[in-house]
Amino acid sequence: MPLRVAQDAIVWLIYASGSSKNLNVFFMGGEPLLRRQIIEKIIPFAKIRAKSHGKTVRFSVTTNGTLVTNDFVSFAKENGLHFHLSFDGCPEVQDHNRPLATGKASSPLVEKAAKLILKEQPGVMSRGCVSPDNVSNLLNSYRYFREQGFTTIGLYPCESRKWTQETLVMLETQFNLVAEDWTDAFRNSIELHISPLERWFTQKERESRGRHPCGAGRGMALIDTEGGIWPCSRFSSHDPAKFKLGSIYEGFSDSLRQPLLEGCSEDKFYPECQDCSAKKMCEGGCLVENLEETGDMFVYSPNDCEILRIYSRVGTKMHDILCAEKNPLFMKKYYPKEWTEIEKTNSHDTAPSEPCTT
């Protein structure tokens, strides 16, 4: 993206955000650090412009880690730039999925980047893609991330259409092994955040399923290298006549945006969804993945439904074990009110009521 387009995008954001005071800018690619100079110029520009309008901006960059340097991490620290690290797993997985252009292994470079980033941002997430080809290494990748010092770990299944019954069984087996290790971490008062399993703990008490999986086209937009406006980065590879919402220079098309504003997964809530164990965790899935798998932005593919049920089964089992044990770290984190009552009850030496239910 040329610097001028980036600057114009910031100006557009400030005005298009209306009365919103807190704005977010994400640098994505490709690999955004290929244009590091743009990032280093646009952040000070955005801060000054936003401040003049009584607004603040939070910045994040999603990087594969191969171009991260000590001085860029220092720049990030000084300017409040937060990292998201695309890191697929243990060297066997990472080097297979993401080799360098030369064909050499990328894992040594990413390990080095991880150490630099974690020193300044200990809670940064390693976000890995779990495919049917590497699912047998899921537990190994989880342990590897922990060895690298990550406490926030994302292990996200991808390539939905490639999953088979056999690989889905392997996925559940591997997630159960991860959950066992995570359970032991709770017992040892080690706080970890493991996505997407953690979603079950935070969403199981909802009264109904979420209406939207994300803010695509509603509170979020991608600005492309020419100033085009898209619902999100995933949509930019699709038909611009259907999904490009306009331009920062010409405004946007309300008619193209309308389906994103009005449509939601609840409109496609089928009878079989009613008894699904994951229904409260379900928010309809990624709109683009749905479009590619089913032809409808708001219809989940069968494989994605089963993957969500796997999270539910694994999460429920882990949840019930830690609730039965009244694990202090777990209770304080997910049931703070109930934990306060337990502590009060224990101080009076009487039997506490059940703190949480499935």
Note down, in words, how this protein is organized:
There is one protein chain. With about 350 residues, the protein is α/β, with parallel strands linked by helices. It has a domain at about 5-10 and about 20-160: TIM Barrel (Alpha-Beta Barrel). It has helices at about 5-15, 35-50, 70-80, 90-95, 105-120, 140-150, 165-185, 200-205, 240-245, 255-260, 285-295, 300-325, 330-335, 335-345, and strands at about 20-25, 55-65, 80-85, 125-130, 150-155, 195, 220-225, 230, 245, 250. A hairpin with a 4-residue loop joins strand 7 (about 220-225) and strand 8. The protein is globular, with a radius of gyration of 22 Å.
List the helices and strands and how they pair.
Layout: H1 3-16, E1 22-27, H2 36-52, E2 56-63, H3 70-79, E3 81-86, H4 91-97, H5 107-120, E4 125-130, H6 138-148, E5 152-157, H7 165-187, E6 193-195, H8 198-203, E7 222-223, E8 228-230, H9 240-243, E9 246-247, E10 251-252, H10 254-262, H11 287-294, H12 302-324, H13 328-334, H14 336-347
Parallel strand pairs: 1-2, 2-3, 3-4, 4-5, 5-6
Antiparallel strand pairs: 7-8, 8-9, 9-10
Helix pairs in contact: 1-2, 3-5, 7-12, 13-14
Low-confidence stretches: none
> What is the CATH fold-level name of one domain?
TIM Barrel
Global mean pLDDT: 89
Strand content: 5-15%
Helix content: 40-55%
Number of strands: 10
Quaternary structure classification:
single chain
CATH H level of one domain: which superfamily? Aldolase class I
Q: Order the strands across the largest sheet as they lie in space.
A: 1-2-3-4-5-6
The count of helical stretches stands at 14
CATH C-level class of one domain is: Alpha Beta
Biggest pleated-sheet summary: 6 strands, parallel
Order of helices and strands: HEHEHEHHEHEHEHEEHEEHHHHH
What is the radius of gyration? 22 Å
Using the 3D structure, state the CATH architecture of one domain: Alpha-Beta Barrel
